[in-house]
From TrEMBL:
<dbReference type="GO" id="GO:0008652">
    <property type="term" value="P:amino acid biosynthetic process"/>
</dbReference>
<dbReference type="InterPro" id="IPR056179">
    <property type="entry name" value="DHQS_C"/>
</dbReference>
<feature type="domain" description="3-dehydroquinate synthase N-terminal">
    <location>
        <begin position="1"/>
        <end position="81"/>
    </location>
</feature>
<dbReference type="GO" id="GO:0003856">
    <property type="term" value="F:3-dehydroquinate synthase activity"/>
</dbReference>
<dbReference type="Pfam" id="PF24621">
    <property type="entry name" value="DHQS_C"/>
</dbReference>
<keyword id="KW-0456">Lyase</keyword>
<dbReference type="InterPro" id="IPR050071">
    <property type="entry name" value="Dehydroquinate_synthase"/>
</dbReference>
<dbReference type="Pfam" id="PF01761">
    <property type="entry name" value="DHQ_synthase"/>
</dbReference>
<keyword id="KW-0028">Amino-acid biosynthesis</keyword>
<dbReference type="InterPro" id="IPR030960">
    <property type="entry name" value="DHQS/DOIS_N"/>
</dbReference>
<keyword id="KW-0520">NAD</keyword>
<feature type="domain" description="3-dehydroquinate synthase C-terminal">
    <location>
        <begin position="83"/>
        <end position="223"/>
    </location>
</feature>
<keyword id="KW-0057">Aromatic amino acid biosynthesis</keyword>
<protein>
    <submittedName>
        <fullName>Uncharacterized protein</fullName>
    </submittedName>
</protein>
<dbReference type="GO" id="GO:0009073">
    <property type="term" value="P:aromatic amino acid family biosynthetic process"/>
</dbReference>
């Protein structure tokens, strides 16, 4: 099976390939930045279920992944920026120098070839150590506990957020929690917030969305014994996992996000 398309195609196509006749081989040809830097590598495949993101899924690696950055030429800028959120995430969890390089480079001067290679290198090195996400791979979920819940709640047709747009908000919120509950310094929180709010056209999270967001977080697959578990950064380039967080700090982090835009 050949999955030619964005992350939706590689998640869905891969899931079908992995389950059809108990599994057939597949290759990925990712055509969006998001799928090139993230979704097409690592073997996580899945579909949404009961309005929850990726609630049904399996792990299986493609036989090959072919990436051609020329495909990005037709990609709308909003989609390109959505993929860029995963690039920022990879830097925040593993590479401080690359974070600062991107922060200090004009968007127009980004070399996508280099950026994609760098992101895949980070993701593959982590996945290789922990393919089934029992430990260290969880750091790749930074920004996703709150980001996924926001994405689920903002799925309606006329008011939707792209995956990376929701994750960008999740990164701000979870960086805020990394500052209040972990060792992230205020100056680094400010840099992350500034970089993201300048890159994206951020949406206010309305008060009436907070309850459904919290409910979606409760259903997160990463929770253990009904405790909300998440990955938090200690500083830019270093991330830990399995931190307990509660509804109060999540609420506070969304207030912080709203106050920054
Ligand atoms: N499995 C994983 O590890 C993993 C990691 C990150 C994200 N994801 C998933 O990936 C999904 C998002 O992927 P996505 O951002 O690629 O979205 P997508 O697959 O929906 O593609 C975005 C849009 O761009 C269009 N498109 C694709 N390639 C194009 C091109 N070259 N030129 C013009 N238009 C093009 C598509 O038709 C679609 O409308 C989310 O569901 C997310 O959960 C999975
Ligand atoms: Zn993601």
């Amino acid at each position: 099976m050949i999955n030619l398309g964005g992350g939706v195609i590689s998640d869905l196509g891969g899931f079908i390939a992995a389950t059809y006749m108990r599994g057939i081989d597949f290759i990925n040809i990712p055509t969006t930045l998001l799928s090139q830097v993230d979704a097409s590598v690592g073997g996580k495949l899945g579909i949404n279920f009961n309005e929850l993101k990726n609630h049904v899924g399996v792990f299986l690696n493609p036989k090959k992944v072919f990436i051609d950055t020329d495909l990005l030429k037709s990609l709308p800028i909003r989609e390109l920026k959505s993929g860029f959120a995963e690039v920022i995430k990879h830097c925040l969890v593993k590479d401080k120098n690359e974070f600062y390089r991107l922060l200090n480079t004009n968007w127009k001067n980004y070399d996508w070839n280099d950026i994609i290679k760098h992101s895949i290198k980070i993701k593959s090195s982590i996945v290789k150590k922990d393919p089934l996400e029992n430990g260290i791979r969880k750091i790749l979920n930074f920004g996703h506990t709150i980001g996924h819940a926001i994405e689920s709640v903002y799925m309606s047709k006329n008011n939707y957020l792209l995956h990376g747009e929701a994750i960008a908000i999740g990164i701000i919120c979870e960086s805020y929690i990394s500052y209040t509950s972990n060792s992230l310094q205020k100056n680094e929180l400010d840099l992350i917030t500034k970089f993201i709010t300048k890159t994206y056209k951020p949406n206010i999270i309305n008060k009436n969305k907070i309850k459904p967001i919290l409910e979606a977080i409760i259903h997160d697959k990463k929770n253990i014994n009904n405790k909300i578990k998440t990955s938090l950064i200690e500083k830019i380039g270093k991330c830990g996992y399995n931190y307990n967080i509660n509804k109060l700090v999540i609420n506070e982090s969304i207030d912080y996000y709203n106050s920054c835009i």
